Known about the structure:
Blueprint: E1 7-10, H1 14-26, E2 30-35, H2 43-47, E3 50-53, H3 66-76, E4 80-82, H4 92-100, E5 104-105, H5 110-117, H6 119-128, E6 136-137, H7 147-154, E7 158-162, E8 172-174, H8 180-195, E9 200-204, E10 210-218, E11 224-236, E12 239-245, H9 252-268, E13 273-281, E14 287-293, H10 300-307, H11 311-319, E15 336-343, E16 345-346, E17 352-353, E18 356-357, E19 360-362, E20 369-373, E21 380-381, E22 388-396, H12 399-412, E23 414-416, H13 422-429, H14 432-436, H15 443-447, H16 458-482, H17 491-498
Parallel strand pairs: 1-2, 1-4, 2-3, 4-5
Antiparallel strand pairs: 6-9, 7-8, 7-9, 10-11, 10-13, 11-12, 12-15, 13-14, 15-22, 16-17, 18-21, 19-23, 20-22
This protein binds ligand MV4.
Amino acid sequence: MTQKINKILIANRGEIAVRVMRACRDLDITSVAVFSDCDQTAYHVRMADEAYNIGPAPSNESYLVHDKIIDVAKRCGADAIHPGYGFLAENADFAQRCIDEGLIFIGPKPETIRSLGDKLVARKMAQKADLPITPGAQLDGQGWADTHRLAEEVGYPVLVKAAAGGGGKGMRVVESQELLDEALETAAREAKSAFGDGRVYMEKYLARPRHIEIQILCDQHGNAIHLCERECSIQRRHQKVIEESPSPLMTPELREKMGSAAVSIALESGYVGAGTVEFLVDEDMSFYFLEVNTRLQVEHPVTEMVTGLDLVKEQIAVAEGRKLRLTQSDISLNGHAIECRIYAENPEEGFMPSTGTLKNYRLPSGPGVRVDSGVVIFNDIPIYYDPMIAKMIVWGQNREEAIARTKRALEEYRISGVKTTIGFHRVVMDNPKFVSGDISTKFLQEEYPDNNYTQLDDNLREKAAIAAALETFIRERKIAVNSGNKRRQSNWTAVYRRNLSHFGGSR
Ligand code: MV4
């Protein structure tokens, strides 16, 4: 009934590949990395027990190529593939291919990935499982003739969504009837070109919702539990930036209702593994099902910090066919956790991705601080992949302590060579609305309409000026010391070269 997993290929890169490898090491499982040409020196490659090149930097020539990954898995004798998030994590064809090749795919069944990936199917499942869904219309198969009447029934503004979408791709807010036809057409066209599936549907548009998601965990024997919520309202352009658990506005009653709803759809869809059920929570505290993410999510560590569980370890146990070792009554929340996503982006330039070489990379630590990083000093940040380079997750006895520690840790964090969102997080941690827990998906838009995140932090400008002066002083001194000494290698370089194998690697 159960099959012990001894070797896992991690079909991913960056911090999530490292995260999965850490669980492998804890479980005495051999880890296998795959890497593209520009990731030769990446941290996930150093962390792995074995590593194989799978081609050129663009992900559609490496990390996304099913054949290459399956080929490595079979050649190296892996039992299972962990997809991480992104790339192949929610690809039903890839999951099926793994099974067909005799490999365990660490994730839900291909049928589940496929059906929940279709937002219209997911909505129907949610309805069947008695979850509240936003008032809306199903447009598939009905033709477009009745759309105006349907939108009228739903009530403007309506939100047009792509059936194959998710994560906000292909959405359109429609304020009034005159704009409906065009919005439906553009959305359908966009969806067709982005997902190869032009089906769209519409829902009542909620103006200022909070985004709350429930972590679920299910085994292959029909057991399903939830691990409470994560508050993910702070996002920009559908990209989450700060997540926390518990949600500052949650009540035990609402948690119980949303948790049970999440478990219901998990059972309805035959879910296996770790997953996330997303909801919108309206200002009057009514909640509505949005979608199910059939993967381990970026923000899973906040749940780990407050539940004390290791979600990757649980995923592996479930994939081996074991029964859940916990029941719902074993789950309780301890304290508060906040995650700041550290992106290699420039908040002063509209969050443009920032590439370069990490010249200085010092991580914060101390009580309550966890950093899941995908990079080490002297790594190049390539243009080809997601710009998120690390996540800082901070735990406190309560939200107040978690915020205080987050601020302390952000101050300790040092990165140079690329621009990052560290300073941005410091600004948000001082925002009175954030501190009071008064947040919605509109938070950043409303609080920082001009994307002006630096102005408030003039302290930082002063420090930058001092740093620049110091740097100039040191450089001039170095030139003086080194003059007449042609091409002298600095001691730092020499020491680094000698100790190369000790830098960053875990062993
Ligand atoms: C909505 C909504 C308001 N009303 N649906 C965006 C991502 C996708 N999963 C669904 N999304 C939304 N659906 C209705 N009926 C607002 C959003 C939304 C949002 C949701 C979660 C997190 C951030 C968001 C930012 C803007 C809009």
